[in-house]
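Hi R.,

As promised, here are both runs. First protein below:
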Amino acid sequence: MKVHKKIYTLLLLGFLGLAGRAQAQQQQQQEGERYQDYFQVKAIPDTTKIRIGEPIKIDITAKVMLYALKGANIKVAFPNLPDSLNHIEIVDRGKLDTIGSNEQQRLFRATMTVTSFDSGRWEMPPMKFEVYSMTDGSYDSVFTEPFFIDVNTVAVDTTQAFKPIKDVRRAPINIFDYWPWLLAVFLIVSLTVIYFAYWHKRRPKAPPAPPKPSKTPFEAALAELQRIGREKPWNTDVKAYYTDLTDVLRQYFEQQFKIPALEQTSAELLQNIKPVTILNQQRDKLQRILTVADLAKFAKMQPTPEEHEACLREAIDIVEWTRASVTAAESKEESNNATT
């Protein structure tokens, strides 16, 4: 009886051990399947059959389920592929985006473009993804499924004979192909015509040169003195007579000898003619004329008729005395004009 009890006990313990081991294996298998659901990667081409040089778009996705990794800071590293692998050329790696991510999952996606210039059947190898846990530093790797790409050549009809290479043909000239250049030329010509027709005419012209006096200062002064002698204005207005007489002499000195005589008093004028030798030689006559004129204009003195005529004669003598200087200046100006 005791032997049977021991056998039953051993059998019960063995059964319990086998059941626990099977349950542990089942739990481990379920955990493995759940882990595979935590991190899923795919590489799906839009086609697997192309002609040489045609592009293939490969949609690469990596999905991390966050509900099972609460509190974990996850980082996903996409495959680092060379530019060429196994007769396949990578044309564009695409941009990574996270459209579709939410609180439950994080979705990474990129579209890669590849092609091939060798005919045949080529395998796109598995792509390695790595997921890092920034919380505890652990990481794991997951690979995509490989797939094959069939690259075909362009079909050639060998039953047809080869044809010679044709000569280069020039396209016919179409004037509308050059309309930007024609428009530019038209605008330039139009603006040039408008400028010369409108703005150029409205441009302010240079002021005309002052007309050359018909008489020299010497001739003008002598003519004015002769006019005064004919009219004898002292018979009607003594003050006006002496004003005209001294103004003729002052204007003559200013035009011929560049002395600002019209702006100077009698004393200043007598002082400023000293450097001009030919005028200084007639200083006494000029002083008598200016003295009598100032007394008649400002002191209301009434000179005698003889004094009126004497002042006029002395004024004519002063102008006549400078004839030699005027003739020499005119000769010098004519010689300068002739040399230029």
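And here is the second one, sequence first, then its structure tokens:
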Amino acid sequence: MVSDGLREKAIERSRKLLEPGEAVRRVYFAQGGIPPQARVIVVVAGMVLARFTLGDQLGLVGGAIGGIIGALAVTALTSRRLVLRTDRSLVVLAYNRFAGMRPSALTARLPKDTPLSLSGTWAPVALNGEKLWIHKRWQDPHHVAASLPGM
């Protein structure tokens, strides 16, 4: 099971973007942009392309460089979202691609009864016109966040 500490840290860092006194009930970490399955393909393609471009001059180091470039491309093409089900609404927050888990903007505030159909390894979810994927480790239907006291 995923650490409650990570969920609580996400809630704490999201406080400034929530309404005063709003209590968080569930936390979902989501990713948008390119589909999760395609991310592996982009990294491997970067490794292969670098290997063919550089030839045998750099050997495995060239492949590793290509893999790093592919991983950076995947990170740049992936949007990261924090979805919070609160006592008042379903809140979607954006956070920076390269700056860790620090929510930076409120993307959407949807009705609290907005359904999330979560199943599979990467559950596809459309929220506010954006297609997101939520990994199964964040899909725990029984977990209720302790939530920090309201402001």
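A quick note on the second one: The beta strands are 24-33, 78-86, 89-95, 103-111, 122-127, 130-135. Let me know what you think.

Best,
J.
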